[in-house]
Amino acid sequence: MSKIVIIGAGISGHTAAAHLRRKLNKEHEVVVVSPNRNYQWVPSNIWVGIGRMKAEELIFPLEPLYKRKGIGYKQAKVVSFHPEGNATETKPYVAVEYVFGADQGKTENVTYDYLINATGPKLAFDMTEGLNPGTNKAFSVCTYDHAQHAWHGLKDLIDQLKGSNKKAKVLIGTGHAKATCQGAAFEYILNVEKELVRHGVRNQVEVTWISNENDLGDFGMDGMLLDYNGLNMRSKDMIEMIFEDRGIKWILGAGVNKIEDGVAHYENLEGEFKSETYDFAMLIPAFSGHGFKGYDKNGADITDKLFKGFMIVDADYTPKPYEEWTVQDWPETYQNPSYKNIFAPGIAFAPPHSISKPRKSKNGTDIFPAPPRTGMPSGITARLVADNIIDSIKSGKESLHHKGSMGNMGAACIASAGFGMTQGSGVSITTYPIVPDYIKYPQTGGRDINKTFGDIGLAGHWVKLSLHYAFLWKAKMRPFWWLIPE
Ligand SMILES: Cc1cc2nc3c(=O)[nH]c(=O)nc-3n(C[C@H](O)[C@H](O)[C@H](O)COP(=O)(O)OP(=O)(O)OC[C@H]3O[C@@H](n4cnc5c(N)ncnc54)[C@H](O)[C@@H]3O)c2cc1C
């Protein structure tokens, strides 16, 4: 009998748990440890942040589902890793602390045969002074409760503007010099702009994009050359066209470093220190590792065998200049090299390097996006990790046949650009592969131009809405859920 412990119930952890439970018979134990009692379909937070969807429409409680499906569940957070056990516990374990109910504050050592670390990123608001969701008129849409706050902030502004001559400024983008998730901020700025139009206050508001990207449309992927209606177009030009069409201004190469009430301070690549005032902002924080510690059986600190910010996996972490980076640096099995029964799919693994070209300001400050790891690869890597564990359990020996690198995986980013079955719109960008392969695709910016394309129109909104329902169906493990791909 094997016991598989999964920490985190986001896209990655939940996907892994679902596949493990479906394919392993009940003599094997599958246990999920996660502090949030709800599953959330994160991409739809954008619509919560504009008041067009209620948080209840994209969340559901995990415990009843897990009970029905025979998945163990602990509403707790992992505090430390003990992959060799300790003086009294021979099995590897994670120390967890319960966060809810009668057990709140209680700690427990949860032993495992296989461990899947799917804890995603820490939303590191603390890395930018004054950036705290819901304060200083600056908000976030990274979780459903943040998105609810954001909608209240935006609605207050819209209410103040309606029937007045007041002017206002909206600022949306990244809130740290090395933040990622530009895609989510891009989606939000388009939705906010559309809502301002819908509420009849657009002409009173200056809408500005602020980002650590060197070029528009970099998205932490170094931008892309894409096929747009049969033409080869750079994402830079496509996004510029979209912003110009909607009257959205932009500030690029900006490392936001301090937020005061209605003022964002930033340094740009020119080394200038500037500020931008606003009445409503949504700024994506830096993502960091959770700061977990690891200990060996004697209690010695072995954190550096497990973590490099995020978790160490089968990537090539050798420091090398940008010109020498290759797709082969990226991991394929998400297995920790020191402890082979530990895996880290989704956002939890440490990337070998950024995908965007690293840039420094004239003062030496790093200002460029960290690599994005979107929902699709999070689901795919979770499934392949689950499949390798299943094969290993069934064959009785380590099996790592299932492989997938961000260098041979695509990302489909469908940014809704306004809500509504007939009025909605979407910007769809499909990129293949996520990490450019300059050897395979030397003429087209490291990407396969037949699989890298952009589209603008109502269809994008419909696809995004369909994905919302399809992925919630899948997450709720409704009939034939496994037929819906990751
Ligand atoms: C607003 C927004 C919109 C987005 N839109 C899209 C989109 O349209 N398309 C797309 O492909 N991607 C999108 N993304 C990205 C996508 O949401 C992420 O790639 C995905 O959620 C990552 O999944 P994950 O499971 O690795 O991490 P997460 O979803 O962050 O899950 C991590 C889990 O770990 C848990 N956890 C944290 N700490 C601990 C601990 N100490 N112990 C135990 N558990 C812990 C958390 O509670 C959570 O359940 C969007 C992201 C945002 C923020």
From TrEMBL:
Residues making up the signal peptide according to the UniProt record: none
Pfam families with a match to the protein in the record: Pyr_redox_2
Transmembrane residue ranges: none
Originating organism: Flavobacterium faecale
Domain (FAD/NAD(P)-binding): residue spans on this chain: 3-267
PANTHER family tied to this protein: FAD-DEPENDENT PYRIDINE NUCLEOTIDE-DISULPHIDE OXIDOREDUCTASE, PTHR43755
UniProt-recorded Gene Ontology molecular function terms: oxidoreductase activity
Protein name per its UniProtKB record: Sulfide:quinone reductase
